[in-house]
Amino acid sequence: MNKKSYIWHILWAALALLLAGGVLCAILWFSRYHERIEQEIKEAEIQERSNQLKNDLLRLQKRTVTIQIDNGSSNVSTEEFSMTDFQEKYFYCCSDGTEIPASDVISDETDVMPASPNGVSNVASSRAGITLRMKDDDTLSFSIRCEASEDAVESILNDLTEKYTIPVQNARINAKLKVRAAKDGQALNPADIKSELTKYLNESSAESLTVTWKTTPVKPEWNAADLKKVHFFISRFTTHFVNTGSRSYNIALAAKRINGICLLPGESVSFEKAFYDDSDGKSYQKANAIFKGKIVQAEGGGICQVSSTAYITCLKAGILPTERHPHSLPVSYVPLGLDAAISVGNKDLVVKNTLDAPILFRAKASGGTLTVEIISAKNALKGRSYVPRAKQLSAKSARSYLDVYQNGKRIKVISLGKDTYD
């Protein structure tokens, strides 16, 4: 090979090397470019998935619940609530079983969050944390779980129930035997809607909810026709007092405050509450009263004569009080063992109507005479009569009884207990 040919071979070899190097560089550059493009595509996909989660969450947060209250009339009331009212919470659920609490306000700001169950530290906001998880493993998928506060749901339903419930009014009768007509009521049953509402709030449906909640009519148990039958005296008892001074005034005021009390079967009355219902604008005066075994001056002194008279009247109707207390000292206006003391916050006379018919208390104090009577239906006592009596055991103790008669024959004796006085 001549020198010239040798040089050409060297030049061709160098050129080949340059071409090979260029091709290699081109291949490396293209490979890196392709990887960068793939990475950008992956990041774009991840961003798109993250944005989709954001939009899904925003749609869930913007849901509303509209509850229509249908009471059977032409007017339907409407109540609207937001997810905030139900204290709705949201969670990003990962396909690997972990959950990340979603922020109430969507933000990319850094926010320290607890580690997930698989040990991954969520050191960014919800969306940023999800983005990191997707970059680490792009096979992961996310969904949104909703969870309403049970207490918030319960509170809203209770408020609606209270707002749209109309109490039924039974017929009543007053001391002048005038009857007040009954009125229908309406009721709402929270259980009718709670299940449906809770199911919706805990689902991931982006649609708002509108439900209709119908009221249930409530009919009165006692109507005017029933109360018009209340016009027979079934028991009466009378005591006497000195018709002068503040004690006489107190007795008259207490009698007036229980005059006209109507109890339907099963209803109760507290004589303490009735005596101290000052809606009439009047006040008791100071008079002699028994307190802890001593005679003292107290506002309302004398009202115990009214409660004691009413106690015996109830016994004569076969009604045993659910609460009754004797005085600490003997009293003169009723037999020992048949008195009923009233002491604010301490002693009360509570009477429950145990008859099958309504009863009406009538009381009047005038000219030194106090009379309490009970009016009811004609057959309220079912042919029975009741006679209270007390057996004095000593100067300061007595045992009382209630004799039950049927057709003039005593058929039963009820022991009312033993009372001891200071």
* Class based on secondary structure composition and strand pairing: alpha+beta
Order of helices and strands: HEEEEHEHEEEHEEHEHEEHEEHEEEEEE
Radius of gyration computed on alpha carbons: 43 Å
**Strand order across the largest sheet:** 11-18-17-12
Beta-strand content: 25-35%
Reported for the largest beta sheet, the result is: 4 strands, antiparallel
Number of E-state strands: 21
How far do the termini sit from each other? 150 Å
Helicity level = 25-40%
Q: For the residues shown, what is the average pLDDT?
A: 86
Global shape: rod-shaped
Residue stretches low in confidence (pLDDT < 50, at least 5 long) are 104-124
What are the salient characteristics of this protein?
422 residues, alpha+beta
Write structural notes for this entry.
- The structure is a single chain.
- The protein is rod-shaped.
- Helices cover 32% and strands 29% of the residues.
- It has helices at 3-61, 126-136, 150-164, 191-201, 224-227, 245-258, 271-275, 303-316; strands at residues 64-70, 76-82, 89-94, 99-101, 142-147, 172-173, 179-180, 185-187, 209-214, 216-218, 232-240, 262-263, 268-270, 286-291, 294-299, 350-352, 359-366, 369-376, 384-394, 397-406, 409-420.
- The chain is built from eight helices and 21 strands.
- The chain starts with a helix and ends with a strand.
- Strands 11-18-17-12 form a four-stranded antiparallel beta sheet. The protein has a three-stranded mixed beta sheet with strand order 2-1-9, covered by helices on one side.
- The chain is an alpha+beta fold and 422 residues long.
